[in-house]
Amino acid sequence: MPEQPRTFHIEQLGPPRGARGVQENEPVADLEDLTTHHPGANRAIHMEDGHIRGAEDQQPTYRGGDRSYAYIDGEFQEVIDHTTDRYGSLKPDQVLMVKDYILEDPAPPRGTSARAVGVPSPTAGYVSRVSDAGGMVEIMDREGGDVIARIRHLDPISVREGDTVTYGESLGTQSNKGLPRNAGVHAHVEMDTAHHQQLVDYFDDLNSGRLSVQPELRANTARPVVADGTFRLGQSDERIGDVQRVMAGEGYRAVDGGVLDHDGVYRPNMQGALLDFQRDHGLPQTGNIDPPTLDLAPPMPRRELDGEHGRPAYQAPPAHAAPGHPDHPDHGRALPEQPAPAVNQHRGGHASRSEQSQVVGELSAHDRAMFEKLRDRIPGHISDDAVAAALHGAKKADIDSAEKIADVRLAGDQIYVVGTTPGFRAVVDLSQKIPAVEESLQQTRLLNQAQVLSQQQEDQNRQARAGENNARVI
Q1: CA separation for the pair 251, 253 (Å, rounded)
Q2: Does a structural domain hold residue 235?
Q3: Is there a contact between 85 and 64 (Cβ–Cβ < 8 Å)?
Q4: What is the pLDDT of residues 94-138, one digit of tens each?
Q5: What is the DSSP letter of 98?
Q6: Residue 13 included in any domain
Q7: Of 131, 135, 248, 263, which is least surrounded by CB within 10 A?
Q8: For 175, which DSSP code?
Q9: Residue 110 located in a structural domain
Q10: Cβ neighbours around 218 below 10 Å, total
Q11: Cα separation of 470 and 316, whole Å?
């Protein structure tokens, strides 16, 4: 009777649970079940102003010794990019996502550990590097090509540099090589985000038995990859450029206030802005450039040439464009009344348009009405600091009440406040340093006082002139 394939039992060390933060092994049904790498050490991980905070070992100790993180598929993930790649073989914008998992044989031969199993390769390709120290095998798509995946903690390793491996081929035996002696035996995968669907299929094949415990009974070809229409960190595509164009047009900025790239490459410096964009538009904050996000960034139309002058003809914006969002259709009715909690938290409480600084309450009723009108017209990802600066600028331009605000526009790096009186307008340049909200509102109060004093002086002068005229008449 032919030997029957045995299906791996897959587990992981789960996240801390309960008041004591106990971590226990838990079953894994698919890639989505795998938690953040080292969940115990990363229990406090979060994002603030586009920067990952509270993560394990973020401070560099040696080349490649620090760790990097990102928000992918709705979860914080450890990643490896060219700044944290100790081998220096990743391309400048390439990103590998990191996961740990445990493979067990449900019926190991007598006297053999259930975890002493051969780890199937998650991809076919060229073995570009083998490191005995960490039990690591690196696989490229071709010799001298791009890294697809790395598997770690193998001992012994079954392949050599220069080998060509097939999908599912054993790369080595699962162990804790490269880890402290008391570390649990497990496998560790690092996979290029451009091959995300292949990693999904890999775990499905492990769970279904298509990649069985016995190497000789495994499938040796991966399933055909069906694209999910989603771009993840590190990927490049012209549609990413469309999203960058729309975000920049609505005033979103890269980390630390930098200008968003328009080159179609999804880099870490735009993650915070993307999460803000998704939240402000009522979309799930996945951190991916997914189909719902792409729906808000129509492809740039192919401009027809004006036959008479040979220049691009005028193209009208989309019909029913959203106020302040001229590059995509109106979606306002779909926005939730209460925005979801912000993944990308902002210092100073700027995560949503409803979160105003307490000092606003100290304004006069007229100024508070102006601030609230500006806050309502300016997208929520723009900070209260910028709104307060717009208020101060409007007051200086003699737009001194909410009723005198005719329009508020966000165009690139500028906020325009247009008054009902022709020619009256104020501009705030977001590319320049914006004063703190408290400073702008204090300047507004001082401006109000100066205007009151000026009005009082003008009234006194008027009364004096009236007295002089009366004296001449007598």
Answers
A1: 6
A2: yes
A3: yes
A4: 999 999 999 999 999 988 999 999 999 999 999 999 999 999 999
A5: E
A6: yes
A7: 263
A8: B
A9: yes
A10: 22
A11: 63
Q: In which element (H, E) is residue 458 found? A: helix 437-473
Tokens for 367, please give them: 């100024």
137/119 Cα distance (integer angstroms): 11
Q: Are 153 and 174 in contact (CB under 8 A)?
A: yes
- Is the CA virtual torsion 108, 113, 118, 120 positive or negative? positive
Phi and psi dihedrals of 192, rounded to 5? -60, 135
Place of tokens 């993944």: 343
Q: How far apart are CA 117 and CA 106, in angstroms?
A: 11
240: phi then psi, degrees, rounded to nearest 5: -65, -40
* Residue 355, pLDDT score: 39
124 contacts 159 by C-beta, under 8 angstroms: no
**Residue 19: its pLDDT value, please?**
79
160, 193: one domain: yes
Res. 197: pLDDT tops 90: yes
Task: For residues 204 and 252, state if they share a domain.
Answer: no
**What helix, strand, coil percent values describe the chain, rounded to 5?**
25, 25, 50
Quick: pLDDT tens for 297-331: 988 664 344 444 444 443 444 444 444 455 555 55
Cβ–Cβ < 8 Å for 23, 14: yes
* Cα 291 to Cα 264: distance, rounded to the nearest angstrom: 16
169, 139 in Cβ contact below 8 A? no
CB of 104 closer than 8 Å to CB of 119: no
In terms of domains, do 270 and 362 share one?
A: no
The number of beta carbons lying within 10 Å of the beta carbon of residue 351 is 21
Angle made by CA atoms 169, 175, 177, in degrees to the nearest 5: 110
Distance of CA 140 to the CA centre of its chain: 27
Taking residue 278's Cβ as centre, other Cβ atoms within 10 Å add up to 23
Torsional sign, CA 392, 396, 398, 400? positive
CB distance 239 to 294 below 8 Å = yes
Residue type, 376: D
As given in the structure block, the two tokens for residue 1 are 């009777």
- The answer to whether the CB of 100 falls within 8 A of the CB of 78 is no
Alpha carbon distance 245, 415 (integer Å) = 17
The span from the CA of 388 to the CA of 396, in Å, is 12
Residues 108, 35: one domain? yes
Q: Which residues contact 454 (CB under 8 A, 6 or more apart)?
A: none
Say whether both 155 and 68 belong to one domain: yes
User: What does residue 334 show for φ and ψ, rounded to 5 degrees?
Assistant: -90, -5
